[in-house]
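Have a think about this chain, tokens included, and walk me through the fold.
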Amino acid sequence: MRFFIIIIVFISFHACDKNCPPDEKIGVVQFTGNTSDYLPYNGSEILLYKNSAGDTLTLRAKNGVDSSVNKLCVETICTENNFAGTSTCRYFEGDSRRIILENDSLEILVDILIYTKVYNSQKEEFADLLRVSLSHGPPSNTAEVLVGQHFEGEPDPARINILFPFSGIDFIEFNNIIYNNVLFSNGEQLTFYYKENIGLLAFEKEDILWVLQ
């Protein structure tokens, strides 16, 4: 007599469905005193630029200035057991302002952004940055710089983590006017100059310099 003992074992591994609570707002970080000076536009401007031959072009913001807020996470609360590993955090609400300037043919586009990012999450420290991207036909150029800090002492470049930094010029002359402390970005085919409280001061492509009038 044969006894067939069939043992069927069903082993199921089920990941615990972990529903994280929503993000928790714990504070607000506003721009430092002079950060807004690096985006000195209200969105209604018509900016006139002229080259040495007397040709002119205009830039304007068709959609005005966009103001929004960012979540600046400083502590992870929970991570869900799913493929994406979605996390929630405790965060500060940070400022962000952006304007896009264009000419009528859309050949020239200037994207200017000021925003706040986390500098040191453990100490709840933050930094304000300016980022300017300029495209003029195929070539484009982007630069970024620290314009405000919500912490004491000298900034650590590794924490700021700027990939394409602006350079600084003590002074430069355009149209018989001397400008001090100008930001400067020299790309391979496209160069531009930017000034606090003025904005895009001038830009150059293929040795043709366009200066704000």
